[in-house]
Structure formats: C-alpha cells, structure tokens
Specification:
Shape of chain A: elongated
Strand order of the largest sheet of chain B: 3-2-11
Oligomer: heterodimer
Strand content of chain A: under 5%
Number of helices of chain A: 13
Shape of chain B: elongated
Helix content of chain B: 40-55%
Structural class of chain B: mainly alpha
Number of strands of chain A: 0
Largest interface: A-B, 42 and 53 residues
Distance between the termini of chain A: 35 Å
Radius of gyration of chain B: 33 Å
Low-confidence stretches of chain B: 83-118
Largest sheet of chain B: 3 strands, antiparallel
Order of helices and strands of chain A: HHHHHHHHHHHHH
Number of helices of chain B: 17
Helix content of chain A: 55-70%
Chain lengths: ~325, ~475
C-alpha cells in the first residue's frame, strides 16, 4: 500500500478511495460467494451458538443410534432395549436427582422420560434429515429441468407441483400416510413406519425448492455467460451442469434448513395424530400424544420435556436458517 | 385480458384434474385391503368380496373392458341371483366357481348353499375362457375321506362328496348342481379341470334337467358405455359431484359437510380475522420503530412464538382454562367454548405472520417512491396508507389466500383436541375408520377452494396491477 501512495495519482478521487480502504485495513482480495458466506457465518456469534446446539443434538442422536444397535446386537440381555426398561414400581415419578433415569421423572410404565427424550432426538433428526435428502435433490433436479428446458418440460413440471401444492401440506401428508397405512414394504422399507414418514414428508416438501430453483434457473438461463456458452456450441447438459446448477446450489442449503424445521414439526404433529412413527417408538410426538391428559393429573414432566427438547432444536434451526439465508443469498437479505 | 382469464381457468381445471388423479392413485391405486377394515380382519373371503362388490371396489381400475359371468334368477323376474333390492348399489352378478373354495360349507363338503353370488370382472371373458381363470386356481371343494363304516344304521344322509352348489332361489325353491364333471382331483381338493371352459359351465347350469328355466347363466354383454364403468371414472364423477355416501355414517357427503361446516367456520373465521388484524397492527408498529429495542424485541418474540410447537399451545392452554373454568375447556356444550380455541389459533399463528408482514412492509418503506412522496411534503399517514399499504396488499392478499382452505377445514388439530365436531374432526375420524369417500371429499374440497382462490388472486392482480405482464 505504501507503493501506491508514492506514485503521483492520475486521478485523485480514485486514490483517495483506495487509500481510505487501505487505511482502514480491511481490504481483502475478492471472495467467492461460498467463501464470503463461510466468513459471515463463522463471524456470527448467534449462528455459531445455534450450530453448536445442532451438533449437540446430532451427537445425542448418534448416541441413541449406538445404544439401540448395541441393545439389538446384544444377545445375553445385558443391555436392555428401551421397551424393556419398564419399571412398574416407579411409575409416574416426579423428577428427582436420585439417579439419571429419574432426572425428568418417569412415565406411566416407569420408563425414564429423560432417556425417552434423548432417544426422541434420533427419530426427529432422522426424519428431518431423510425427508430433505429426498426433497432437496428432487426439487433441485425438477426445478432445474423445468427452468432450463422450458416448453413442455416446464409445463409438465409446473403442472405437477401446482397440483401437489393445491392440496394443503398437512392434508397431503395425511392422505399419503393414509395410503401408506397397509401398503406392502417397498425395497425392504416399511411404509407404515419411520421410512414411510420420511417419504411422505419428502414428497410433500420438494415443491418449495422446485419453485425457487425453477425461477432462479429461468433468470440464469438468460444471463450473458450462458448465452455465450450456448453460442460456442456447448451441449445443453454441460451448460446446465457447469454453469447453471452451481449457481443455484446455495438454494439447496437454505431450503435444507427450512425444510428441516418443517419436517421436525410435522413429524411431531403426525405422531400426535397417530399417523406418524409407530406407537412405542420413543419420539416427541408420541410423548406428547401419551401425555395429553397428564397435565390434569399434575404430571407435567413428560409433556414439558418433549416440548422443550423440540423448542430448542427448532429455535436453533430457525436462527441458523435465517443467518444462512442472509449469508448465502444477498438478494433475499432481510431489511 | 379475456384470453388470459380463459387460459388461467383452463390451467385451474388441469390442476383440479391433477388433484383427482393424485387422490385416485393414493386412495384406490395403493395396495391395501379396504374391505378388511369394514367387515373385519377375519371375515370370510366371500363377505369381503360382497362388500367390495356392493361399494363398487371390485370394478376394473382404469377402463372397463371386462365381462362377468352372471347367474340370473328367473323365478321372480330377471334378477341376478342373490340381488337384494335394498342393496341395489354395485354389482350382484354371480361368479359361482370363484367362490367355491371360500364357502366354509364347501370345505365341509355337506352342501354348498350359496345364497349370495358375486360376479368378478374378468378381462376378455368368453365361452372359451378356461375355467381355471374363473376359479383363480382356488379349490372348488374338499375331497372327503370315505365314511367310516358304522354298525348302527344312520338316518342322516351320507355327506355329498364333490363340488356341489345349492342355489337358493327367490321363490324359496332350491336347485342342486353337481360340478364334478368340470373338476379334477389334486391332493385332497377338487380343482377346475384343464379342459373345462366357461362355456361348459354355462351349459351345465342351463341344461341341467332339474333347472327347467329357473336360473340362467350367461356372460354379460359389453358395450362402449361400459368402458366408463370403472373405478377411475367413478372416482372422478364422485369427486366432482360429491354424490357419494360415507361408508361408516351411511349419510350423503353433502349432508355431512353441511352439518359439520358451521362449527368449523365458527372457529376459523374469527381466528383468521382477529389474527390478521392483530398481525397487521403489531407488524406496522414494529416496522415503524425499526432498529430500536422495540423492533428487536418484537422479532425475538415472534421467532420464539414460531418455535413453540402448536401442540404445546393447545395442551397448556386447555390446562390453564381447565384450572379457571373446567366446563369451558372441552366440547361444545356452551357456544362460548370456542373462545379458547380461537385465542390459541390466533396466538400460535401470530409469530409467523408478524415476521412476514414486517418484512413485507419494510420492503416497501425503503422504496424510492416513499422518499419522493415524503420529499414533496406528503404527511406520514398519507404516505403509509395511500402508497405503502396499496403496494403491500399483493403479498398480504396472497398470504390470506393461502389460509383459505383452513377456513373450511378448520384447524384439524384444534378441532380434535377441543372436541369441536367440525370438518377437521370428521377428517381424522374418517381416516381412522377408513372412510375413503369422506377423506377423498375433504382433500378434494380443500384443493378446489385453494385453486379457485389462487386463480382469483392471479386474475385480480392482472386486472389491478399494471406491472404484471400477461404471458
């Protein structure tokens, strides 16, 4: 920067501008969108706190998975599965600090509410993750095809998603779960169980991603660099993969976090209605469903445990999702 | 403009058609045993077949190019055998052999008293169709072991061995027909023999010496109009006209909806209206004080509100109400019981709408036209209500339209939880009872209302907003 100041400036305004940036000391070389977003996110304290919470939840979920696998693989019954932990001498105990399993009290069968809540994390995260693993690629691919190829491909895909969008989300979910109720297993997956919930949530939630991606791709298709690529004879599929898709990938990340919140909330509602994960699987929805009349008998712990576990997860996901959107999509940035 | 409206209308019709296609795939196309849910899991195959036939679920799925074997009872007019006059719906034709193995009495080998026979739809059925296609490979009867020799002379008739059907006719007479000539023995079962064709069966029945024209077996005619006698066209016409009955309540859908809708509306109309007004007031307020502590607090609270599960609002709300006034916490014994559900719906929805409207309003407040209007000396209220509100109306209107289906449906969760007998409550109980026509009607109704609403907003945009390009 000293060299810049030594040479006499041809235009004083430019130098003054460059100098003011240099003097402040935060002149940085140009960053890519992803680099910029990473920097913004890692500087954001709230986003980091939320990320920490989500990592914590993920670890709990992995722990739950490990416990369930160990209990299943164990043949001598030294590790009990959660269903086997019923203890009819300690039913409906209020929270106490005697032992970890009594920290949040026990339910009607004497099972620990604390452990149940922790195992519920696994179901919620599985459902949230798998639903998006289905929905995001589906929405991205269909949206990109519709936006890029236009004409009848576009018409067909728009028809498909406007048809599905015209049934309110919860109704479509209920209809899907109704149809799955006694469907035979598909590819070894029981459609009446957790896999069915994931598929139903995925099938319902690809629409938003598809819509956004389609609109964005239609804009990108008309940009100079795409027209230039077309002019030199690049095949359409290469243009799409190399020039169009990378420019809408940030939408995948944004929609992933939004879709995750929606899936976690919907799973709880479906389980509450008896259309979600099977009864007996420790999930927050099942806990709320089981405890719906508990409050009148003064047993607040099971309900409160499930509700607060869900509250913190959804809060962290919501805030992180907002921050991610602000970082990744400057156009959508909140005022 | 008229061309645009027509095109938009066409598109809506296509969408509604898509919804019907989707509901058909979901409710009729997915494998599952709906009969088992209604007549019981352990019911005989014959009873299930009868139920399916009575409600039209045995018809071909997409188009009907099928024929049936019917046995007509001539004793009192030309009626299909076993047709009940009061249960005229569905098909009452007879496909005797398909049911041979299922009749428990046939298993015992005593007599095959089939009072109610049902035709099955078979593709390209004619006289040359092998009999095994009618029986689907099922046994016609059991081969009985030879009777044990007894010293005592017995008065009871010796059990009949072989596939024998006793037709009970309308005038009270019976006709016993032995089908052994069409059967072969395999193991301990009579199966349809390989040479026997459908024509042989018809001849055997019609030319039976004791028949004397009492019953007549035949293959149904097929005309072009029969093409549409399929589940798909039935589903379409019933969806559009709502001309169907509940499988459980045995009432017409239109009656059920008319009976249930007022309770839903009493809940949702005030909830939507109050929620909207409150959200608008709070969000304008928050937007006005943008950047201050008040704004941050508002946004923070609305995020918190969005994160509390709806179920928690309901359960804690009811508990709170129960501790204040126990009779007001559940059911519709008093009209004023709706206040609590309404309050819960309003509060639970407030967070998301305040955040949304705040963004919409702030988006407009920073536009150039606002600065220009202020610069030329227009007062703040004039700018806000004349210019800003007008421009905010589009997204706000869209948001309201999105809530429209719930106006009719009510809030599913709230209605079931608070025991309000509205449409949402009906939908959930119908799902548990496998009441397919009701579930279908509810889904279709919401989809139609939503599609119409979106179409009307689109058209009104095109009419009132010159910026919208008609493509």
């Amino acid at each position: 920067m000293t060299e810049e100041n030594k040479t006499p400036p041809p235009n004083p305004i430019v130098v003054e501008y460059a100098g003011s940036i240099a003097a402040k000391g935060d002149f940085v070389p140009g960053r890519s969108l992803w680099g910029d977003a990473r920097r913004r996110i890692f500087r954001d304290k709230w986003a980091m706190v939320c990320l920490g919470i989500i990592v914590l939840y993920s670890l709990i979920a992995l722990g739950g998975l490990g416990y369930e696998m160990a209990a299943e693989a164990d043949n001598n019954d030294s590790i009990k599965t959660f269903e086997e932990t019923s203890d009819y001498e300690n039913t409906n105990r209020s929270p106490s600090l005697e032992a970890p399993r009594f920290w949040l009290g026990t339910d009607w069968a004497g099972k620990s509410v604390f452990y149940k809540t922790l195992l519920g994390v696994k179901v919620s995260l599985t459902v949230g993750f798998m639903a998006n693993v289905i929905a995001i690629p589906l929405g991205m691919i269909l949206g990109a095809l519709a936006g890029f190829y236009g004409k009848w491909v576009d018409t067909g895909i728009v028809w498909l998603f406007s048809t599905m969008a015209s049934i309110p989300g919860i109704m479509l979910l209920i209809a899907l779960r109704y149809a799955f109720q006694d469907a035979p297993p598909v590819l070894g997956m029981d459609l009446g169980g957790v896999a069915g919930v994931c598929i139903a949530l995925g099938v319902v939630s690809w629409i938003r991603t598809c819509r956004l991606v389609r609109a964005e791709v239609m804009k990108i298709r008309e940009l100079d660099y795409v027209i230039a690529a077309r002019a030199i004879g690049t095949p359409k599929i290469i243009i799409m993969l190399r020039h169009v898709i990378p420019n809408v990938l940030h939408l995948a990340i944004i929609n992933f976090s939004l879709g995750f919140v929606w899936a976690v909330k919907s799973e709880v509602i479906l389980s509450y209605l008896g259309l979600g994960v099977p009864v007996g699987v420790p999930s927050w929805g099942n806990m709320i469903n089981a405890a719906r009349t508990d409050l009148f008998m003064g047993r607040w712990w099971e309900l409160t445990a499930a509700v607060s576990a869900m509250f913190f997860l959804v809060l962290a996901l919501n805030i992180l999702g907002d921050r991610l959107r602000d970082a990744l999509d400057p156009k959508l940035r909140n005022v | 403009m008229i061309a645009y409206i027509l095109r938009r209308l066409g598109w809506s019709i296509l969408t509604v058609f898509g919804v019907m296609l989707l509901t058909f795939i979901l409710f009729r196309g997915m494998p599952g045993d709906i009969a088992a849910a209604h007549v019981g899991q352990k019911a005989r195959q014959q009873d299930r077949a009868e139920w399916l036939s009575r409600h039209g679920y045995d018809r071909p799925k997409l188009v009907n190019t099928h024929r049936r074997l019917v046995v007509i009872d001539n004793t009192e007019g030309d009626k299909p055998l076993g047709a009940d006059d009061d249960k005229a719906a569905g098909s009452q034709a007879a496909d005797a052999l398909a049911l041979f193995g299922e009749s428990p009495k046939a298993e015992e080998g005593e007599s095959n008293d089939i009072t109610r026979l049902l035709g099955r739809f078979i593709k390209n059925l004619d006289r040359d169709t092998p009999l095994s296609e009618l029986t689907e490979g099922r046994p016609m009867a059991k081969v009985l072991p030879p009777p044990e020799p007894t010293t005592q002379p017995t008065t009871a008739p010796a059990p009949v061995n072989g596939p024998i059907i006793m037709f009970s006719l309308r005038d009270g007479s019976n006709l016993k027909i032995d089908f052994t000539s069409l059967a072969k023995i395999e193991g301990d079962k009579f199966l349809a023999s390989d040479e026997a064709a459908c024509g042989d069966l018809i001849d055997l029945i019609n030319k039976h010496p004791e028949n004397k024209g009492r019953i007549k077996a035949a293959i149904t005619d097929w005309g072009w109009t029969d093409l549409f006698d399929s589940q798909f066209f039935d589903h379409m016409s019933k969806s559009v006209t709502f001309n169907a009955s509940s499988l459980v309540l045995k009432k017409k859908l239109t009656d059920i909806i008319a009976e249930r809708a007022p309770d839903s509306l009493a809940l949702t109309v005030p909830a939507l209206a109050i929620g909207w007004i409150l959200a608008m007031i709070i969000s304008s307020f928050v937007a006005y004080y943008r950047g201050t502590v008040l704004d941050k607090l508002g946004v923070f609270l609305s995020v918190l509100g969005m994160c509390i599960p709806f179920l928690a609002f309901m359960i804690y709300g009811q508990w709170l109400m129960f501790s204040i006034a126990p009779t007001r916490a559940y059911g519709m014994a008093y009209r004023s019981n709706v206040y609590l559900p309404i309050a819960i719906m309003v509060i639970a929805g407030l967070g998301a709408s305040v955040r949304f409207y705040r963004t919409v309003i702030l988006d407009q407040v920073h536009q150039d036209y606002v600065r220009t209007a202020r610069a030329k000396g227009a007062s703040l209220p004039a700018v806000l209500f004349k210019h800003v509100l007008k421009n905010c109306m589009l997204p706000i209107l869209t948001n309201l339209i999105l809530a429209l289906p719930f106006l009719i449906m009510g809030s599913l969760l709230v209605e079931t939880y608070f025991g309000i007998p509205g449409l949402g409550d009906l939908l959930l109980s119908s799902i548990n009872q496998r009441d397919e026509p009701v579930v279908n009607a509810m889904v279709f109704l919401t989809a139609v209302i939503y599609t119409t609403g979106v179409m009307l907003t689109d058209i009104s945009y095109a009419l009132f907003d010159p910026r919208i390009r008609l493509t």
